[in-house]
Amino acid sequence: MVMVIFSLLAALWLWPGGLGAVPVAAPPPAPPGETVRFPYFRVPESVYLCGEPVPLSDPAVREDLDRELTIVIWSHAQTTMWIKRAPRYLPEVEEKLRSRRLPLDLQYVVVIESDMRPKARSSAGALGPWQFMAPTAQRFQLTLNPAVDERLEFGKATDAALSYLQRLYQIFHDWPLALAAYNCGEARVQKEMAIQGVNSFYHLSLPEETERYVHRLLAAKIVLEHPARYGYDIPADQLYPPLAYDEVSITLAKAVAVRRLAEACGSYYKAIKTLNPWINGAELPPGVYRLKLPQGSASRFQEAWRRGLVDSKQ
After folding, report:
1. pTM of the predicted protein model
2. What pLDDT, on the 0 to 100 scale, is given for residue 34?
3. What are the angstrom distances between the C-alpha of 149 and each of 164, 227, 233, 281?
4. Last residue of one domain, picked from the residues 184, 219, 238
5. Are 219 and 30 in contact (CB under 8 A)?
6. How far apart are the C-alpha atoms of 309 and 264, rounded to whole Å?
7. Rounded CA gap, 288 and 72, in Å?
8. Which among 104, 227, 233 is positioned nearest to 162, based on CA atoms?
9. What burial letters (b/e) apply to 180-213, b meaning 16+ CB within 10 Å?
10. Which of 41, 242, 261, 278 has the fewest CB atoms within 10 Å, i.e. the most exposed one?
11. Does residue 222 fall inside a structural domain?
12. Is 220 within the bounds of a domain?
């Protein structure tokens, strides 16, 4: 009998709305005779991707974009985080795109690949803000070894991603196809084009994830370009500013513990790892490195370096 009572109490505690449930405010009831109506957002009449019009006159294309736009608009938590992180990461991407004379729309690749999370990891093993698999990362000169993984260094990973996108455009001479190939690989896109006799992304049958990929990028662009239009009116002081840091170049003759690097600039282990997520472990092996340090700490670090207080694993 005691066990039965205990089981019933436990069930009441765990059941949604039971004794142990976290109180959640109920939505206000609609006034008598009225219905609660949610806002409806239409696909824009015209949308451009990398300077080329998206063929929205095709009902299938419009429906595919409508699906992704609806998901992005109503994924409030995720889209809010996109808007908050954009000022931190997208200006650097945009600057690099301008210097290469590449379409600015390519900045939205990093949004949909990783949500602009520097240490994002996929179940397939893709890593970093641009979600590189190891072979592709090495193909574009990113260092990967037990101590260092440059897929996690935002600037270098961005350079590698833009080089890859440029290469894909040279292959396909079409940005939607290049973006599809970034998602599923150029060999897969070329194979399907040959089988199907189609050279337009919008008419090509590809893996569902890849077909959705380009439309998701378009949806991200639409909302991030005009967030208030879609209900996201976030105050400027709530947006995340770019990270502030100093940079120093060092040459290590022997391994140095990250803890020692942090102590040398008056900081702590986590701060150094956050600014330099490409450092895999708790120490750096011999080599040449460019480190980001907490803002204002470079002079202290360099003084410690001159006095020999850094060059130690202890």
Report:
1. 0.85
2. 67
3. 18, 34, 37, 10
4. 238
5. no
6. 7
7. 42
8. 104
9. bbbbbebeebeebbeeeeeeebbebebeeebbbb
10. 242
11. yes
12. yes
The span from the first CA to the last CA of the chain, in angstroms, equals: 61
CA dist 288 and 275 (Å) reads: 17
pLDDT of 9 reads: 45
**What is the signed CA dihedral for 81, 82, 84, 90, rounded to 10 degrees?**
150
Low-confidence stretches of the chain (pLDDT beneath 50): 1-26, 312-314
- What span, in angstroms and rounded, lies between the C-alpha atoms of 265 and 303? 9
Are the C-beta atoms of 119 and 152 separated by less than 8 Å? yes
Determine, yes or no, domain membership for 279: yes
Nearest to 289 by CA among 257, 259, 260, 247: 247
pLDDT of residue 18: 44
Q: Please check whether residues 111 and 191 belong to one and the same domain.
A: yes
How many beta carbons lie within 10 A of that of residue 271, not counting itself? 17
pLDDT per position as a tens digit, 281-293: 999 999 999 999 9
User: Alpha-carbon torsion 265, 269, 275, 279, what sign?
Assistant: positive
* 79 shares a domain with 96: yes
What does the longest C-alpha to C-alpha distance in the chain come to? 79
H-assigned helices in 101-207: 108-114, 134-139, 154-172, 175-184, 186-196
DSSP assigned state of 127: B
Look up residue 144 and give its DSSP letter. B
What size, in residues, is the chain?
314
Residue 120, domain CATH: 1.10.530.10
User: What distances in angstroms separate CA 213 from CA 128, 131, 292, one per listed residue?
Assistant: 18, 14, 33
d(C-alpha 77, C-alpha 144), whole Å? 33
Predicted local distance difference test score (pLDDT) of residue 12: 43
Q: Angle at which helices 76-100 and 154-172 pack, to 10 degrees?
A: 70
- Name which of 249, 257, 259 is nearest 288 in CA terms: 249
Q: Tokens 């700490």, residue? A: 297
Write down the residue that tokens 């436990």 correspond to. 10
